[in-house]
Amino acid sequence: MKEAQPRTIFLKDYKKPPFLIDETVLHFDLSEQGATVKSRLSIRRNPDADTAPQDLYLDGVDLELAAIAIDGVELSGSGYELIAEGLRVIDVADNFLLECETRIKPHENTCLEGLYKSSSMFCTQCEAEGFRRITYYLDRPDVMSRFTTTIVADKNLYPILLSNGNQVERGDLDADRHFVTWEDPFRKPCYLFALVAGDLLNIDDEYTTMSGRKVALRMFVEPQNKDKCSHALNSLKASMKWDEEVYGREYDLDIFMIVAVDDFNMGAMENKGLNIFNSSCVLAKPDTATDATYQRIEAIVAHEYFHNWSGNRVTCRDWFQLSLKEGFTVFRDAEFSADMNSRTVKRIEDVNLLRTAQFAEDAGPMSHPVRPASFIEISNFYTLTIYEKGAEVVGMIYRLLGAELFRKGSDLYFERHDGQAVTTDDFVQAMQDASGKDLTQFKRWYDLAGTPVIAVDYEYDQDGQTFTLKLSQSCPSTAGDVVEKPFHIPFSFALLDNNGCNIPLIQDDDAVFANAPTELVLDFVKTEQIFTFQHIEKRPIPSLLRGFSAPVRIKNTYSRDELLFLMSNETDGFNRWDAGQKLAVEIIREVAESYAQGAELTVDQRLIEAYRGLLVSESIDKALLSKMLLLPTESYLIELSETANVDAIHHARNFVRDTVAKALKSELLKCYQDNLEAETAYSADFRSIAKRSLKNIALGLLLSIGDAEALTLAETQFATAENMTDESASLIALVNSDFIAPREAALETFYAKWKADPQVVEQWLSIQCGSVKSGSLEAVKRLMSHEAFDIKNPNKVRSVIGAFCNQNIVSFHNANGQGYAFLADNVIKLNKLNPQIASRLVTPLTRWKKFDEQRQALMQAQLKRILDEENLSKDVYEVVSKSIK
Ligand code: ARG
Ligand code: ZN
Asked: Is 304 labeled as catalytic in the residue annotation?
């Protein structure tokens, strides 16, 4: 018999906490055998509680209770009861001091939640519900407390002992042990608690805030990484300055610490004053980190820093409100990256992720609203919907209000709710109150899952000189929704004349022509809505949903010739890129169709000419060009399909790519040479990045058609590269080519050179496993017994299993079903070791609906096999049970 099914938690059942914890005093004794945690909690009844129970229920998981006392008196067995996932303290007073002593085993903790060991250090991850693995507590974000933390450990093994806030005391103890005490002056929920102990080096910097206070910035790393800190520290200073300038937000403690940890489930964590990062998201130097890594680090450092206001000073009332902090903070970090780099390119990258992965999530079995109504395991809801769609929702408010009113709204939000745990409704209310804009209908974005679809129809009347735009919206119904009411959609719009110039938009006949805007954000609020524009002298081309102003699917209304026109004339950079994507999608689909029918394959010459035009253009911005030369990915093409024929998509895309590369060989060679220039020193500014990117795209295209000249270029670049961007790009080009011997040689050389550097080894693994050429299932399985692999390290799991299943799509989806069985085997293995990683890894199997019947059956069979496992974690249970037909 299987154990009882895990419980579903509902937003509608939210109740205010019956008890509050004013003070939390923690004492950690760390040793190789385990850790002893003593807590002293000053607890009182919540005067505003919804209920007044006699007993106190505390959360606790995998804890050994050694002692418990109330107001200094040891509790007898009748005073408390150990229950599933917690502790019941029977019949408590209104005000009391609870003392507990618990024992935990950080060195056996493979789920990487709570307190665990990573290489030689102790560290913590408490969000969302990890604190309950440290001590018994009210582990919910609306219980905020002042923390004082003392850490005791061996002085030689753990010279550095860190926690949140300010260090207030330190000293030596007997037997080579020492202690440090930290005090955090800000009340916080326990998910923001952090502790680190290790033999770490610190790299220091300093920042002077807008009011003139000096803040110490201190990054802690293992000694071998001391030369990989400068980019993160520079990004941190830039973030601090940006948040002062753009949001008026100043940092509030005297010290800000960052720690790099090798074993980490996610990217990073915003613990108050002590951010903890996955090493791969914070460590960089030019010879080991690619441009993409440099940009990721800049974005994540900013993200975690920005949480100090959007997350820590104002936090979430409950986990259903997760997007309150995550959506807003992703919006903030995206704006920061846009300001630091190319705004258009940042938008292209974000929309690409949204349309490829979030849209797929929202069309799949785990589809949920930005504010979910229920969950089984909250860790499963750190999703693209909460983060990326959540950021789009905040972005739509920004577009509806404009920069100035949005800033008034954020000021009001921070002022009104500083020190509180609040809801997404509170956020929207502040925006509405500050701007005077009614956002009632807008709130539907938080409560409804699914991606709205917009159909566009338009008409030009030559005689009346009017242009009529008709928009209609619908949303594929998601479980539980009965009435379909329209969304409030900001629809950014312009009209282009045949020279590609914006035409003044006059909606009202009395409007003054000279003051007419040339771009509008239309309030699209009805199921069907008509907008009319006057005094349009010639037939224009409409520019729709500029900058991707809302997270919707829009049906293509353009002819191929119009798309070609837009590829060179759109005034909105995002739409210009998107026109190229739309054209390429159409053409690849046409080729895939022919492939599936066994017909002859041909590529519409217009696409080739369009790329030629881009390559020879003198005026186009290189950053934009580097994005326009990339064909839509296989994942995106699958997402756009009703039923995806993976083999046809793969072959068609390659055929189009190779046809373009052959036709444009000389232009690509010239592009390579033009962007080759010897560099003085590596710089990660976006212009240098764009040049390297163009050069390496050209190299990849030339190598994919087996060009001998390109092979020499790639081998030379590989041997002489002075930065990891160029080194790994040449390796990727070789790995994806048909030059088998050079490819194998390069992989071997690369590993021999970099095997001591885990961040580079991760790249080496994912390049191979993500490539159809080098990542056969057998090769991937062999890599799993390579010394470089470690199933307990999430980064390695992602680089091998994740890369194979998500990037090496034709191999994973091999009709023999072996890719599916391989994934299920590993999900089952990881379910015991690290449930969070297991449940993330299983995602590709949950997308079965997109594939043919045979594959659907094979995928379903593997999901059932997982569900039949004994002791399935809540994490895996929730995802798999919701994914089964
Ligand atoms: N708050 C962190 C961030 O977005 C992520 C924490 C993820 N934790 C988890 N259990 N999934 O920066
Ligand atoms: Zn975050």
From this structure: yes
Residue 775 has φ and ψ, to the nearest 5°, of -105, 55
308 Cα to the center of ligand 2, angstroms? 10
Domain with CATH 1.10.390.10 in the chain: 314-447
Topology adopted by domain 1-199: Immunoglobulin-like (2.60.40)
CA-to-CA dists, residue 490 to 331, 351, 398, 526, angstroms: 16, 16, 10, 12
Considering the chain, tell me which residue range(s) the CATH 2.60.40.1730 domain(s) occupy. 1-199
Q: What is the ipTM, given to two decimal places?
A: 0.98
Through-space distance between the first and last CA atoms of the chain, rounded to whole angstroms? 22
**How far is the centre of ligand 1, averaged over its atoms, from the C-alpha of 237 (Å)?**
22
Residue-wise pLDDT for 228-238, tens only, equals: 999 999 999 99
Cβ(644)–Cβ(638) below 8 Å:
yes
3-state secondary structure of 770: coil
CATH number of the domain at 453-550, please?
2.60.40.1840
Q: Does the beta carbon of 268 lie inside 6 Å of ligand 1?
A: yes
* Neighbour tally for 71: CB within 10 Å: 10
AA letter at 739: F
Superfamily of domain covering 314-447: Neutral Protease Domain 2 (1.10.390.10)
Query: Look-up: residue for tokens 């399935």?
Result: 872
Residue of 99, 127, 304, 570 marked catalytic = 304
Q: Which residue is it, tokens 């005073």?
A: 79
Question: Hey, what are 864's tokens?
Answer: 């059932």
Confirm or reject: Cβ of 639 under 6 Å from ligand 1.
no
What CA–CA distance (Å, rounded) separates 557 from 871? 51
Q: What is the whole-number distance in angstroms between the Cα of residue 153 and the centre of ligand 1?
A: 28
Of the listed ligands, the closest to the CA of 127 is 1
CB 201 within 8 A of CB 165: no
What confidence tens digit (pLDDT) does each residue in 19-53 have? Answer: 999 999 999 999 999 999 999 999 999 999 999 99
549-to-181, 395, 401, 530, 642 alpha-carbon distances in Å: 49, 8, 13, 18, 25
Residue 185 is classified by DSSP as E
